Amino acid sequence: MVDINWEELGFSYIKTPLRYLSYWKDGEWDEGVLTEDNQLHISEGSPAIHYGQQCFEGLKAYRCKDGSINLFRVDQNAKRINTSARRLMMPEIPEEKFIEAVKQVVLANHEYVPPYGSGGTLYLRPLLIGVGDSIGVSPAKEYIFTCFCMPVGPYFKGGMKPTNFIVSDYDRAAPVGTGAVKVGGNYASSLLPGSEAKERSYSDCIYLDPQTHTKIEEVGSANFFGITKDMKFITPISPSILPSITKYSLLYLAKERLGLEAIEGDVKLSELDQFSEAGACGTAAVISPIGGIQFDDTFHVFYSEEEVGPITQKLYAELTGIQFGDVEAPEGWITNLSINK
Ligand SMILES: *Cc1c(COP(=O)(O)O)cnc(C)c1O
Questions:
Q1: 76-131 pLDDT per residue, tens
Q2: Active site residue 215
Q3: Residue whose CA is at the smallest distance from ligand 1 atom 10
Q4: 292 lies in which domain range?
Q5: Which of 11, 242, 246, 248 to mutate to test ligand 1, by most ligand atoms within 8 A of the CB atom?
Q6: Half-sphere exposure of 93 toward its Cβ, with a 13 Å CA cutoff?
Q7: Whose CA is nearest to atom 4 of ligand 1?
Q8: Is 73 exposed, middle or buried (0-12, 13-18, 19+ CB in 10 A)?
Q9: What is the CATH number of the domain that holds 77?
Q10: Has this prediction a pTM greater than 0.90?
Q11: Catalytic one of 182, 198, 229, 268
């Protein structure tokens, strides 16, 4: 048994025994291996560290009641990393290779998947970086695809609670930039706005559409959704939002399981009054209810600063029930791995 206090887990780096590593050179990927070494040995000329030629994914493995392990919509992560790769001129990773890497890492570190009922999960971080001797501004000639994992605690210890957000004066992404792909550069530019928001005691900032600054885009590392007073699930639509797999899952569940009208549409700051609930959603954030949003001199409260709204609660129960194997999943959403001890 591994020596981890599951109750005390947060979201921080923990070195687990094995990670997957594969190298791309001369037009092809090698077989890939599991390795104990958690240091990457790369050229000082690597385009990833000079020009940000890198992209990543984030997904979780969930311990079920019967001890088996679920992956949630891993095929969608496999597709999305390739959308990111194409945008930054990196070689694609065959979907089967990506999924195989994730499975191998989960199985090799299965003792680190937190127990059912602890609220914890095994967080997986696939990463694609441009490496090799280089210095001019052009795509790398060699690439590393790696995937490592670590156990993480529940996002909210002691239950879901609403938190407050502030609208940022900065943009996260350009209108036709890289907002829709999962690249580190978007995050580097969000560090300052995020830290300013946290200094003022907000959970994080909310970014507006970079073209007109009148509509909510997203929350930096999570997408935004709102429930209107007339029971519509609305999540912003924009070419500079990162297409969250959690968001698309909630769009489906809101419609098919909760019977709401579920749409992607504009969420104008001037029309926040139409919403009775709001939240942020993503793999890490799961569903984080939004208490209120500060913008200019206004503080807009949705449902309550203390309590979670009923629709948000239902969506949370449905989503996490599916992920942990307690609620029947839509076709193809779950990959179940059993462990042979
Ligand atoms: C990864 C990410 C999300 C959440 O996407 P999921 O697929 O739901 O985990 C949202 N916004 C940004 C900017 C992201 O990078």
A1: 999 999 999 999 999 999 999 999 999 999 999 999 999 999 999 999 999 999 99
A2: no
A3: 222
A4: 163-324
A5: 242
A6: 35
A7: 282
A8: buried
A9: 3.30.470.10
A10: yes
A11: 182
